[in-house]
């Protein structure tokens, strides 16, 4: 119940009442008693379930903030219950068809619901301006979402997900998707993370289903991936290549480290920071990037000369890294597929040859060492078990005359600096005299030994105080 400007009692659910006469000032007064000021213009609202929540693109500095979702900006506040609280509801028939109020610390304004929230950052739309941490309501205490500013607000579905988690978590499959055809909900891999453990995907893969569920739109796809349980295997079906060959992969779900409100370069999982001019600013104490040092300037990543790029913003830098790492991931996937195919054919050939060998050995007693069949079988046995030199898997794209030869990264070889024409020594970052410890396979980046053997690992060439070092990532 609310009052009109003439103090006439109005039932908001009576459609015969003229909506434009509603006075929402009482909603503004209610907000003051159902919100808490955290300082710096940031407020949080109380819900009837006992939670106190808010939204901010960066974590509020208040000590009252107990949980912060750095992906979506939602946060929760500890403390005692407030004098008043809101009942959070899904968008219902009333909200779709009647006038609502956008309310915050600066008062209330009438408006109408316009569009549902379609993914974590594509918020619901309202006709009137929304206030940051304001509410969209029909009556003072019943609300449909949390304002983020502009004309946007966060719906109940996304708030409930945040409140249901003890710790912030978003699932990840090692890829970022793009919409290929919105009419038939077709999605393709746009970026693929080579650091994601055993990532089988590459750019151009077309998604068919995840756990036998075909997403109906991009928001649905992002929701499906985000809610995959950590550590479980997801069955992902894709079509690959011009022929659209179906592939089914079992991918172990990992947690997401970048994206949404966070930077997303595929380096976030390593806690490494690199500036827009590719100077290392922060390195982890352990892991793949721990051999880098603060102040290292990245000159090459594999055969790509980073000096050719003029990055003007953090967003450009992150997109460049995603493009570069996606290219490397595609080369690795192709190389491993070729290696696995050849290994399969070699095993088939060994089986056939062993069958033939067994037939020859049965022709004559094994005690007759001078027999024709015995000599022939010995020759075949030597041939079958002979070590075969492995093929190189480096793609043709890596062999163009403009590409940097990865072999020059290795050992204590001499590299002529392209700018100064001086001669400098490249030292391998790993001392050959140091003891090499075997690594648990689960801690390695996908089939590391095979990729390194064929020149398809990830290598950084850095300039460190005038000397250049090759840093291979494991």
UniProtKB/TrEMBL annotation:
Source domain of life: Bacteria
Pfam families: DUF7488 (PF24314), PDZ_2 (PF13180)
Domain DUF7488: start-end pairs: 21-166
Limits of the PDZ domain: 171-243
InterPro entries the UniProt entry points to: DUF7488, PDZ, PDZ_sf
Protein name: PDZ domain-containing protein
